[in-house]
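User: For a reading group we're discussing how well predicted structures match intuition. Take Alkaline phosphatase. Before you show the prediction, I'll give you the sequence so everyone sees exactly what went in.
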Amino acid sequence: MHWNYTEHCHDHYLVLQEQLCWLCVIICGQRCKHVFLRLVEQEKDPGFWKEWAQRTLKNALTLQDLNKNVAKNIILFLGDGMGVPTVTAARILKGQLSGQNGEETQLEMDKFPYVALSKTYNTNAQVPDSAGTATAYLCGVKANEGTVGVSAAAVKSQCNTTRGNEVTSILKWAKDAGKSVGIVTTTRVNHATPSAAYAHCVDRDWYSDGDMPAEALQSGCKDIARQLFENIPDIDVIMGGGRRNMYPRNTPDVEYPGDKKHNGTRKDGRNLVGEWTDRMKDKRGYYVWNRKDLFSLNPSNVDYLLGLFEPADLPYELERNKETDPSLTEMVDVAIKILRKNERGFYLLVEGGRIDHGHHDGKAKHALHEAVEMDRAITRAGLLTSIYDTLTVVTADHSHVFSFGGYTHRGNSIFGLAPIMSDIDQKPFTSILYGNGPGFKFVNGARENVSTVDYEHNNYQAQAAVPLSMETHGGEDVAIFSKGPLAHLLHGVQEQHYIPHVMAYAACIGQNKNHCHTNSGSPSLSHISPTLAVLLSVKWLLC
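Assistant: Thanks. Here is the predicted 3D structure of Alkaline phosphatase, as structure tokens, for the group to look at:
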């Protein structure tokens, strides 16, 4: 087969041509090595860079025509712990997984036309946690660390400060407006990020009543798992982990019946999954706990879905059992196909939650593969929706003390060594390092020589400057990527709690809706050409 390099593969750097380049890699096979060698040669020509910049400029000029449509659908992708260094390293990894150098690769989120920065501090913390930040980007108010769905007037772990300080989330605003709503996460569905969408709790660790102090229970506070099913009882799609918090104490897990650490944890004797199943049996509701059962469903025949695929968090993508556990991309695919049936649209929260866990463990390889998988999910969501009626936002709750450097050469493995030795201890070091964490290792009174260990192993813990059993969050701003209706309102440097207010404004839900109606009282939409509408309809049907 004849393949025109100049027409197709040369433009693999460019947004509109990237898909053709992947097709080139598939078709050309070994011959693509020659293609990439030619690209290296082209980079020596100043004209290559100038032409690239001019094409980028031409594309940027189209952004002057702002998308002011009403957002029928709103999607938030939250990369837990996905600071800017993690985004950059994940971009390089994505490219290297495809046989490229990596630096020139584009993540799907990189293609979004608008980028802003989010200030992540909690009301009582310079460096935040995932609970207070979740309250900000879901409920629209800053809050104290360790608390979810309550204002800063609530005090962590003090049950009696809950009542009167509850704040509602954009998921509830969307549900109240008649939209379908969903939560998809790789953590427990009652973990910090998803719980702020539905719960009001002064302690993020009150996963079930078995995790709560007696005085909190006596004072009437509810555990987070219980609130998932009671506060907003008709959430359309819920997928993630966390089975053990839904069953009575000592109930064996369906998947790991012989492992007591996965047994149920509830003291109140309630079977929350059973209660949900009974309530939804006549509403086309289905409960699944494995990938096979998930894919046995036809989304067209499902209105409510509860998928709990592990007793706690889902496994890292690199360790996922592809027979039993769905990927984040697969869960997002099913979720959107269920939610988009609602003619009023939907709100979907998607969390790549184990990026954070990989960093806390000092295991950068896991963290970055989790970020790449979330980017795949973003790609899939883009194929199933349209930028003309769907606002998609990608951001993080906070960063980590993760970095990579050391003057590495172009194309150096992101998990590889720096090309220089330390001029202090004359030992090599990896490009990836942490400011603190479990990777701090001294051998015979000196820094470990990393050339004696497998530093590209999945579970290798990158060296850290300060010894800690668990690496910490970072305090710098994080990126906000956005596309779709009114995405341009996410610009500049913003407080984190601004995010849901923009999303609600774009979708005409929540408190600020005065701009949403014409004289006839119907939602106002910008003009979309008939040809474009046909193309969008064809895309929707094919996907």
